[in-house]
Amino acid sequence: MGMKTITLNLIEGGLTDYFTILRAERRTSLTFAGRRFTMSKGDLILSRENISWNCDAGSNLSVLSIRRDFFDGLFVSQTADCRIIYDFIHDESGNSEYLYFSCQNDRNVLVAFDALEQELKLSDSHHEKMTHLLMVAIVTELDRARENSLIVPNSTMVSQNRFGKLMKYMGDHYNECTLAEVAEKYGYNPDYLSFRFKMITGVTFSKKMLEMKLEQAANMLLSSELTSDEIAQSCGFQSRSWFTRKFKERFGESPGKWRKNSKKLA
């Protein structure tokens, strides 16, 4: 029997395969591609090959390693409409690309990943079909929920995709960039960019910028000792009350309460 095209292991670190998904089973700090991340339970990193990563001592991640020949013609046809992830999987530039998804509240992804974990323990005549179906389900759900779950500041996006570069720029400058600035930088008319942005992402430019700021604030609440006021200022919020209001709308709790409860669950 040939080598399996997809495997799942619980490990502390290593080098990513052709396509790799790392999932946090609990709050975990790690170094990935030279960057520091604090992953909440359920978070996923989708990675291309040859990226070095290591968890802090005493921690590990569920690592789904997938070989190139897993992505056959049927898989390609069933995921072609999931443009960002499709382009990511099929990017042959050789760059160290990765996408970060916050999935702790996405039950569909959690259920599909758990089902895939159980399926990988089997080896009957239905095994290959089921693994492909479950991977299609995971990719499709990630694409469907990317408005809220794709954390752009923690992702490289797709380097050959013009819109991906634009999104990456927004993620790198989430605390200061504007629609007019981004439009000028990438050669768009602001009104046209606003229209295209909503058509492609499903949300307005301003809503996506707010989402990026809130996700970065949540990450800083978990990974730093800065006060809520300091984090709000760092993330580009003009007032504490506005930050607190929007954070509570997004996460269901005030920043201070969310930080306390999240650390209890770690």
Describe this entry's structure for a reader.
The chain has about 270 residues and is an alpha+beta fold. It is built from 12 helices and 9 strands. The chain has 2 domains: about 150 residues, Sandwich (Jelly Rolls); about 110 residues, Arc Repressor Mutant, subunit A. The strands form 2 sheets. Strands 1-8-3-6-9 form a 5-stranded antiparallel beta sheet, with no helix packed on it. A 4-stranded antiparallel beta sheet has the order 2-7-4-5.
Task: Lay out the secondary structure.
Elements: E1 6-11, E2 13-15, E3 19-23, E4 28-32, E5 35-39, E6 44-48, E7 52-55, E8 61-66, H1 73-79, H2 83-89, E9 98-101, H3 107-119, H4 127-144, H5 146-149, H6 162-172, H7 179-185, H8 190-201, H9 205-223, H10 228-234, H11 240-251, H12 255-265
Antiparallel strand pairs: 1-8, 2-7, 3-6, 3-8, 4-5, 4-7, 6-9
Q: Short description, anyone?
A:
Helix content is 48%, strand content 16%. It is of the alpha+beta class and 266 residues long. Strand 4 and strand 5 form a beta hairpin.
The major beta sheet can be summarized as:
5 strands, antiparallel
Number of helices: 12
Percent of residues in helices = 40-55%
Number of beta strands: 9
- Describe the strand arrangement of the main beta sheet, using strand numbers: 1-8-3-6-9
- Report the C-alpha radius of gyration, rounded: 19 Å
Supply the number of structural domains: 2
Q: What is the CATH architecture annotation of the largest domain?
A: Sandwich
CATH superfamily of the largest domain: Regulatory protein AraC
CATH fold annotation of the largest domain: Jelly Rolls
Low-confidence region ranges: none
